[in-house]
Structure formats: C-alpha cells, structure tokens
Amino acid sequence: MNAKRFLSVLFLLGLIAMFSATGCYATSYQIWPSGATPTLIDVGSSTGGQVELGMSFKSDVSGYITGIRFYKSVNNAGTHVGNLWNSTGTLLASATFTNETASGWQQVNFANPVLINANTRYIASYYCPSGHYSDDRGFFATRGVDNAPLHALQDTSATPNGPFTYASTSQFPASTYQSSNYWVDVAFTPATTSTVWPNTATPAILDVGPDSPVELGVSIKSDVSGYITGVRFYKSASNTGTHVGNLWTSTGTLLASATFANETASGWQQANFSKPVAITANTVYVASYHCTVGHYSASGAYFATSGVDNAPLHALVSSTGTPDGRFAYGSTSTFPTNTYFSGNYWVDVVFVATGTGSGASSSQLTPSTTSLNFGSVSVGTKSAAQSINLTNTGTSSLSISQVNVTGSGFAASGISTPLTLAAGQSASLSVTFAPTASGSVGGSVSVVNSASSSPTTISLSGAGIQAQLVVTPASASFGNVVIGISNSQTFTLTNGGSASVTISQANVTGTGFALSGLTTPLTIAAGNRATFNAVFTPTAATGYSGSISLVSSAPNSPPGINLSGTGVTATHLLAASPTTLSFGNVNTGSSSSLKVTLTNNGNSNVTISSVSASGAGYTASGVNANTTLTPGQTATVSVAFAPAAAGSASGSVSVASNASNSPATISLSGSGVTQSTSNGAPICGISGDTSNHIPTDWSTFVPPAKGQSYVDSSFGCTVTRITDASKDAWSGSFYLP
Questions:
Q1: Residue-averaged pLDDT of the chain
Q2: For residue 188, which of 354, 38, 22, 25 has the smallest C-alpha distance?
Q3: pLDDT per position as a tens digit, 15-55
Q4: Which of 42, 116, 207, 632 has the fewest other C-beta atoms within 10 Å?
Q5: What is the CATH number of the domain that holds 70?
C-alpha cells in the first residue's frame, strides 16, 4: 500500500454503524391482480397448434419465484406446464398445473422456489396444447406493466416481450409477434438481504489519495448457508474508472465476477452477479473489488483486534489463519493475498440466507465426477456407457428439468424429466460416445435443476478413430495366359488410419479367378500391411473379367478391385540361332568351338529331350536332356569340330523337344588340314642356279598372315605362309625372271 499516506492515518478509525437485518418478507407479489382479465380471452381457434406463451419481466429486488400464473379461457383445455427461464433460454424450473378451474387465473408452484437477482430479465411461460389462449396484441408495444417490485417489460430490441414458440413440448419462447400479451404472470416473494455494513456506515478516510491500480478485499463468513448475490464497496468522489467486483474462495478460486454500472459519484456502490453464488455456513470467503486509480477508502488497523459481526454475516478479525484487510497490486483483478496493518478497505457483500423466502430451501446437485473421458472409440461404433451419479447434497428436495448434451456423438440417458430428488437422493445418468468422424471431440452434459447453482455441468471428451484400407494395385490385368496355366498377381493391403481394420469377407467374382493367401477374418493394426494373391486360370481362348470385394470395418468397405485377362491357346516354338555353323580349316588333331542359342518363342514351356550331333569330328554339349525353357527363355549349345584327317567334313546338330517345329537342326561344315612339320628356313632358288638359298632376313622378318606372301629382297624369291600352326612353316617357290 501507499505506506506514508496509510501510516499517517493508521489510528484514525471510523465509527462503525451496526446494521440489524429485519425479518423475512411474507408477502407474495404478482404483476396482475386476480381481477385482471384479457380483452381477447380466447383467440378462438386451435389452428395455431401447440404453443409456448411467455412474458418478459424483472424485479427491483432479489427474491424467489415460487410459481407461474396464466389466464385460462374455457376452451384452453389439456395439460399445461409452467416454466421459468433466464434471458438466454436456460430453464430454471418447471411444474405441471393441476386442479385447474374451468377458466380464469391458474397457478402452479415450483417444488423449489427459484432465487432471482434484482434488475435482471427473466421469462415466465406456460405450454398451451390446444391453441385456445388469451392474446391482447400490441399490449407491450409502447409500455410495460409496473407493480413494484415486479415489472412486465415494454417490448423493445433490448427487452423483447410477448414471446412465443410453436412446439410439441415446452420450449424456450424466442419469437415475438406484435408485442402481444398472452397473460402470463409469476408468483414472487422478496428475499431478505443482509450486508456487513449498513448504507449509513462511512470510512474513516474517504480517499487515501492517488495510488497504483489495486484489488481491495475483505474476509467474510456466514452463520448460515445462503447466496451471495453481489458485492458492495464505498466510493470516494475521486475513485473514478471502471470497478469490478469479485467473490473468491479462501484459497483464491474465483466464484463470480461483475462490473459495476450506474455508479453514483460517491457512497456505497453495488454490483449483482449474473447468478447468485451458493455459500456454505461457517466457511471463509473473500469479497473484493478492483480500483484502477488508487483513490480508495480505508480505515487503518480496523481488523487488528476485532472483526465486525452483523449476524448472520461476519467480517473477520485479521489473523495468521484468516488475514483481513486484503490487497494485491495489478492492472486487472487478482486474488488479494497481502495485508497491511489490518486495514479495512470498505468492501461488503449482499447475502440472502437460505430459507428467507417463502418456501425457500437449500438444495445442491452434486455429480460423482465433473468430467468423463471416453478415450479412443472407432468411428461407427458406440463406447461402453459411463455413469454419473447425481446426488442432492442439500437439505431439501430439488427438481431436474432438463438434461442437455453437447458435442458430436455424445448421448445421455437414464433420467426422465422432470425428476424430483429428495435431500440425499441420487439418480444415475448414463453417457455414451459414438463418434461419426475421426479426431478429438469435446462436449458436455448440462443438468438444469432448481438449485441456485444450476446448471450442473460435466465435461465430456473422446476421440474418434478410423481405419483406412488401401489396396494396391487398385486393379489387375493378367494379359495373355495359356489355357490351363495359372498366373498370379500380388496385392498389398495397407491400413493408413488410426484404428485397426478387420476384413470379415473376401469375395471374388468372374470365371477363372481365385484368391490365395487371404484368410478371413483378418485384422490389420493401424500402420501395418498384409498381402494376398489373385490367381487367373483360363479354361478357354477368350477374354475374362472379374472383381474382388473386401468387406471390412473401414469406412470405404467394400473396395472394388477389377480383374481382367485373356485365355490363349498354347504354342510351343523352339528357335535356333544361327542355323548353320562353318568352322573353316581346322588342323587335324586340334579342335574349334562355336555356339548356338536356343530360344523358346512360344507361349508355353518347351522341354528339350535331347541334343545330338552328327558328322565326323562334330560334338554338341551345354544343354542336357529334359531341360525346360519358359516362354522367352534361352539356352546355349556349344558345338565343337575336331577333324581326325585332312579334308572337308559336314554334319548337323539336332535338338529334339516338345515344340511343334521339333527337331531344330543346325547345319555344320569345316575342313581338316595337315600341319607342315618343317621348322627350318624357307628355301629359295634362282633360275639357272642349282643351289638352294635361304632368304637373308627370314629369321628377323615378321611373317605375313596365312596365305600371304612377301618377296625376299636379296634373292628376289617369293615366300608364302601356308598355315597358322607355326610361324616357321614356310613354302619357297622359285622365281623365274
């Protein structure tokens, strides 16, 4: 706090004027007296149908609505239900009319009177099943009806009046028509209110002077249970700006808040909460208000040695366990935890004790839990039910008028309304969750009842999870398949969702198609895969079509997989390449090898039964008997020629198989030659010279290729190479000039 200013007035204590609460009111009020009658008693036709008819009103003082009244015509037959709503459509109480007279004013009392706040708009209505209601049109167009403390409001955009709605059961009347008066009324009993200080009490210091924005509070308790309907504070002329009143538990939980409006220049100010707050007897609470300019009122050391007692209310002496003279600096409202010399900042409450109204009672609907979590539930299924026990923990009975559920997929059952619970009695509410889409869902169960803390709300949460079955490929074409031969294709099943998917059926249609590797039921966890095969076995040379249908728990069940294929007649063709082999000259005693490629050019397997070679010196190897070639497959045959004698040799290789062109034949040719054994130098001669001469450079000369010649430069003789076997095999010839 502003220490210097506060210390200077620490011992300046204001006189406290004590206020004694008067006894409770016993008078019941209504807007219209029993002698009032409508101009149009009966609209005269039931063609309007079933309708809820209402009246918008407020009260100058807090109190209890004990019942609903309406004017009845002779033809207004059937069962009538009276209802009380707040201005936003929350049902506060409901009761069925009984023992009605033939016509005139009718009244039904609620099982538990409903506490209402002063200067707050409410709607009273009744349900008319016959359509024969009273109606004075234009009644509220230019005026309301004032019978203090009650006021039926003029029909304006801010305070619509003459409300109605057509429905088969009671509904909030949200429409208006020509400012009509449907002659609905309430029975009202003012409540006795209590405060700690009377309006005549004043602070020792009206204005401590400028300070920072601050929350100022007082610790209070009551001898009896009841309702805090608002907060008060004493205002100095300099204490300007917006003020906000708050009510807290002793541990700092905010129970209610209200902004002060229509303040006077100074003196006591009051702000009412939108809904009274039930408090428990002999329990400490903190009332406070936020001051933006710091010009607050104070009395130093006020709570140092004593509190203020104005039964049933008590402002507490400041102690370690219950500090009083509370404050907290801050630009917005915050729980005031600090104290400074036990100062009094002149904050007060407006209190209505339970039982001060005619027929008023203490009732409290307490749920066994304030939240339900259903976890993950598969889309399209319903969760197991969870129960909420609703117990009347008060001392008198209460009435449950509505059970409302919000949030996609949530549902509640087990309570038929209206339901009355005696003190200590319980009822069970069953809640389920049936998600319609994947993702997290939030909601609530709101139980509208006659307790002042109504509605009782239980939060709901859950998550919808969903499988997602993807089949790849999405279709299969088997192409040409030989009649009687099976061809298969593999499919992959992928669960890309957030829940397991179960395949309960796998069906295939179309002649020649079948499934393998898929046994149902098959469960695939989220993110996992499985495979199966589709098999095509044609029985005729024609086109085929079919499909696979997989019935599963996925939302796209069953996905359709199209199948197609063509049956063709079997062909067995074996081709050889090349079909002729020429080995040329091969020295006797040596061997030369060439290769032949065998290819299955048909559409069916070819089995080779034998590979044989004929002709002197020819052999074949590389392909064994009973070798099978699939369509397009190849094999290699090695053919060798090893002549035993000089001379030409021909032959063939025969490949026998089940091919239609069997046997495949490869023609063979080659020549055996005898290799010269001369390893000496070639001999040359010159005409007229009987001597043989060795070419001078033969030993260093790189000989030409086979069959090529060169001329020796020294002797002019021609030397020809006649074989590849040895570079030393030469043939000399005489050259005649």
A1: 85
A2: 25
A3: 222 222 223 334 678 999 989 999 999 987 655 678 999 99
A4: 632
A5: 2.60.120.820
Q: What is the mean pLDDT of residues 491-507?
A: 89
Residue 719 placed within a domain: yes
| 347 shares a domain with 485 | no
Rounded to whole angstroms, the Cα distance separating 521 from 502 reads 7
**Rounded distance, CA 53 to CA 130, Å?**
12
Q: How far apart are the C-alpha atoms of 129 and 498, rounded to whole Å?
A: 50
* Token duo for residue 649: 């040799």
pLDDT at 679: 45
Check if the beta carbon of residue 656 is closer than 8 Å to that of residue 646: no
- How many domains is the chain partitioned into structurally? 6
Q: Which of 353, 377, 402 is the last residue of a domain?
A: 353
Kind plus residue range of the DSSP H or E element containing 8: helix 3-8
Domain that holds residue 731: 679-737
Strands (DSSP E) contained in 496-646 are 501-509, 513-516, 522-524, 529-536, 543-552, 560-568, 574-577, 580-587, 592-600, 606-614, 618-621, 627-629, 634-641
Q: What is the Cβ-side half-sphere exposure of residue 100, based on CA atoms within 13 angstroms?
A: 24
CATH number of domain containing 400: 2.60.40.10
Same domain, 65 and 124: yes
Residues 542 and 636 in one domain: no
- For tokens 């015509």, the residue is 73
Residues 720-727: contacts with CB under 8 Å, at least 24 apart: 722/676, 723/587, 723/673, 723/675, 723/676, 725/587, 725/675, 725/676, 726/675, 726/676, 726/679, 727/703
Of residues 112 and 319, more confidently modeled: 319
81 lies in some domain = yes
Do 257 and 348 share a structural domain?
Answer: yes
Residue 141 predicted with pLDDT over 50: yes
In 3D, which of 445, 185, 205, 418 has the Cα closest to residue 301? 205
The reported pLDDT for the residue numbered 130 is 87
Cα–Cα dist 229/357, whole Å = 14
**CATH code of the domain in which 237 resides:** 2.60.120
Tell me: cis bond preceding 578? Omega within 30 of 0 counts.
Answer: yes
Do 299 and 371 lie in one domain? The reply is: no
pLDDT for residue 63 = 86
List, for residues 418-454, the tens digit of each pLDDT value. 888 888 889 999 999 999 988 899 999 999 887 767 7
pLDDT one-digit tens code per residue, 237-289: 999 999 999 999 999 999 999 999 999 999 999 998 877 788 888 999 999 99
| pLDDT at 203 exceeding the cut of 60 | yes
Task: Tell whether 201 and 112 lie within a shared domain.
Answer: no
- Domain boundary among the residues 465, 480, 501 is at 465
Cβ atoms of residues 619 and 639 within 8 Å: yes
Question: Does residue 9 register a pLDDT over 80?
Answer: no
Residues 282 and 197 in one domain: yes
Q: What is the mean pLDDT of residues 395-424?
A: 87
Mean pLDDT over residues 221-228, rounded? 86
Please check whether residue 328 lies inside any domain of the structure: yes
Helix (H, G, I), strand (E, B) or coil at 3: helix
Apex 265 CA angle, 264 and 267, nearest 5: 75
Which residues make Cβ contacts (< 8 Å) with residue 662, sequence separation at least 6? 574, 655, 656
The answer to whether residue 30 is domain-embedded is no
Whether 555 and 585 share a structural domain: no
621 vs 731, which has greater pLDDT?
621
Contact present, 252 and 335 (Cβ < 8 Å): yes
Residue range 555-560: mean pLDDT, rounded: 74
